[in-house]
Every structure is written in C-alpha cells, then in structure tokens.
Amino acid sequence: MQPLPSDATIVILTGAGISKESGLDTFRCEGGIWSKVRLEDVATPEGFAADPDLVHDFYNARRRGLSDPTIAPNPAHHALAELERHWPGRVLIVTQNIDDLHERAGSRNLIHMHGELLKIRCVHCGLPRHWSDDLGTAEMCPDCKRSGTLRPHIVWFGEIPLEMERIMAALSDCALFVSIGTSGNVYPAAGFVAQVRRLGLAHTVELNLEPSQGATLFAEHRNGPASQTVPAFVAEILGREIHG
Ligand code: APR
C-alpha cells in the first residue's frame, strides 16, 4: 500500500468477524446466530411487537454474555485502538457490532451504527441510557415512569442505522476505507465501498476470513483471521511493529 499523506483520514468498518476470536458468534457463518433463531422474530420491530419477551430474552442473553470473563478484545481490536492513539482525530471506526470490545480496547472515535447492547431507550421519552442488567416488559422507565416502554437500543431490520450523516461525510473525505470481518450482506454498510469508489478518492481494503459478498469492489483484499491480518495491516500503515 502507498504511504498515506500526513493529514489523511481513515474510515474502518467492522462487523461480527472482528469479534469472533474474542468468543462472540457471527451471524451468517456456520453455526452463527441466524442459524439458531429467526431474525424476523428477534431483530425486527414486528417481532418485538409480537413477542417482546422473546426479544428481551435474546438480547438479555447476549448482554450477559458480554460480562463473561473470557470475553475480551483480541489483537485486532487492540491494533485499531493503537492506530487511533497514533493518529488521533484521523481514524473513525464505524462498527455494525453491538458489543463493547472496541471501547474496551481503547478506541474512542467510534460509531455504533446498529446500536449498543449495553444501552436501552424508552420509546416514549427517552434518550439512550446505559443498561447492564436484564430487561423485561414490566420494567419501568426511570424517566417517564411508564411500564413496558423500554427496548434494547438496537437498530433492527427495517429501522434506520444511527449517525448516517456523519458516516457519509467521513466516507466522502477519507483517503483509506478498510472493511473488517463483515459478510457484506446488510445495507447500508454493504454499500459503503461502492460509495467510496464512486467518489474515486480513497484506497479500499477488505480484511476478512474469506472473500465477502462485495469483495470484488475492493482494490485490495487480505484473507485470514482478523487477529492476524489487522495487526499486520496496522503495522504496515504505521511503518513499524505493533503489539496487540
Ligand atoms: N476474522 C475475520 N473475519 C472473520 C472471522 C475472523 N476470525 N470469522 C468470521 N469472519 C468473517 C466471515 O467470513 C463473514 O464474512 O466475518 C463475516 C461475518 O459476517 P456476518 O455474520 O454476516 O456478520 P456482519 O457482516 O457483521 O453482519 C452484519 O447483520 O444481522 C445483522 O445486525 C447484524 O450487524 C449485523 C449485520
């Protein structure tokens, strides 16, 4: 890869594959989450309206999973955090993941476009608030005191991803777009590479276990586990060894 200009900005899109080696399941790999539950039942507004208990159980289990002591950021998360520490203000991570592993590794300039497992919101009054316990239909909103109005702060299928304006502005400005651990099945994230290429400015790289749906749209691909490809790629950008 060509050296980047000193004021270049980088947008990094991450998906479930970056957290796989941290012990969290992906969605569409063999044995993945969508082979065990129907996404229509647990990840749509219609599913929540039909059976809120089922939806709460699904996210409660995943939220509890995050506090399992064996779940921790892997060298890929750490490498991205180190990149940001070296180039503060020039690296934006846009993650589709709802886990908090990027934050735990130290990344700060981060957009959770599909929401966060550790946040909930009230459909009546609320801004998102931190939540680490189980959530149920009887729970009362701490602000408006209504019951049954709290929902996971997750962007479900059919809902609009978060902070799209900021993401689009960053994509049109960046010199490098890197996609890590995402199968390229879900829009709008799957369309980011085409968006960047339309503007024709940025170099595009895919780091994934295997070629994704949109692999041919990237100028460069590196296939392999994120815990290896990401630290190696970051080291190349920084021009030196990094330690996960
Ligand atoms: N390193 C790198 N990539 C990996 C690894 C690994 N160790 N393990 C798996 N992968 C790759 C898989 O090859 C696959 O291409 O990660 C990708 C995971 O794809 P998905 O399971 O489809 O996850 P993702 O692309 O993040 O899903 C997008 O779909 O259901 C929704 O809202 C959910 O945000 C999610 C969205």
Tell me, briefly, the overall form.
Answer: globular
Gyration radius over CA? 18 Å
> Structural class given helices, strands, pairing?
alpha/beta
β-strand amount: 15-25%
What is the CATH T-level topology of the largest domain?
Rossmann fold
Under CATH at level 1, the class of the largest domain stands as: Alpha Beta
Q: What's the CATH architecture name of the largest domain?
A: 3-Layer(aba) Sandwich
Low-confidence stretches: none
Write the layout of secondary structure elements.
Elements: E1 10-14, H1 16-20, H2 39-42, H3 45-50, H4 52-66, H5 75-86, E2 91-95, H6 101-105, E3 110-112, E4 115-122, E5 129-130, E6 150-154, H7 164-173, E7 176-180, H8 192-199, E8 203-208, E9 220-223, H9 226-238
Parallel strand pairs: 1-2, 1-7, 2-3, 7-8, 8-9
Antiparallel strand pairs: 4-5, 4-6
Helix pairs in contact: 5-9
Description:
- By secondary structure, the protein is of the alpha/beta class.
- It has two domains: 10-24 and 73-114 and 161-238, 3-Layer(aba) Sandwich (Rossmann fold), CATH 3.40.50; 25-70 and 115-154, SIR2/SIRT2 'Small Domain' (2-Layer Sandwich), CATH 3.30.1600.10.
- Helices cover 32% and strands 18% of the residues.
- It contains nine helices and nine strands.
- It has helices spanning 16-20, 39-42, 45-50, 52-66, 75-86, 101-105, 164-173, 192-199, 226-238, and strands spanning 10-14, 91-95, 110-112, 115-122, 129-130, 150-154, 176-180, 203-208, 220-223.
- The strands form two sheets. It has a six-stranded parallel β-sheet with strand order 3-2-1-7-8-9, sandwiched between helices. The chain has a three-stranded antiparallel β-sheet with strand order 5-4-6, with helices on one face.
- Strand 2 (91-95), helix 6 and strand 3 (110-112) form a beta-alpha-beta unit.
- It binds adenosine-5-diphosphoribose (APR).
- The site of adenosine-5-diphosphoribose has 24 residues, from helix 1.
